[in-house]
Design goal:
By secondary structure, the chain is of the alpha/beta class. It has helices at 30-41, 55-60, 91-103, 141-161; strands at 22-26, 45-49, 66-69, 83-86, 107-110, 123-127, 130-134. It folds into two domains: 22-110, Rossmann fold; 123-161. 28% of the residues are buried.
């Protein structure tokens, strides 16, 4: 790690306990589905607001702590939310959702804008009893996923070499 003070980080990588917390995801596409499933895996009570959701998310909606409200977004959906993820293909709507959530003191992830976010999701690798999160400070989520996959391959290789 560089010991000099180069560019400051925008986002502090950290773990957060969301067990039992109300988390709302606006958008049921690929990104919204991935965020909703990540939150559910971490024990959050997840509500997805979207007219449609991916088939993968539909399969997960059988879980007791996940629900889908099959509708367009309305401000009332943010009531009592701890964390709100705006993950629609409409950047203007994501910006509006983020603003309204911040006004309600909820943490915000605008999946279309790191600048509009207080929270970002790292590319996660759940390996054995460890979780590795790769962040690019919100600049390049695809790069974070590629680097996570490279780490996974290295860990897998190390495990196989040891057998």
């Amino acid at each position: 790690m560089d010991s000099g003070r180069s560019k400051a980080m925008r986002f502090l990588p950290l773990g957060i306990d969301v067990r039992g917390m109300k988390c709302v995801v606006i958008g049921g596409g690929t990104i919204g589905s991935r965020k909703a499933m990540t939150l559910a895996k971490a024990g959050a009570h997840v509500t997805v607001i979207s007219p449609v959701v991916t088939d993968e998310l539909k399969d997960q909606l059988r879980e007791p702590d996940m629900k889908w409200i099959e509708s367009e977004f309305g401000e009332e959906h943010l009531e009592g939310a701890f964390l709100v993820v705006a993950a629609t293909p409409d950047k203007g709507l994501n910006t509006t959702v983020a603003r309204l959530a911040r006004e309600r003191k909820a943490l915000v992830c605008d999946a279309s804008s790191a600048e509009g976010s207080q929270v970002i999701f790292g590319a996660l690798l759940d390996a054995d009893e460890s979780v590795v999160a790769v962040f690019t400070d919100g600049r390049d989520p695809a790069k974070a996923r590629r680097e996570r996959d490279e780490i996974a391959a290295l860990l897998s290789s190390d495990r196989n070499d040891g057998k």
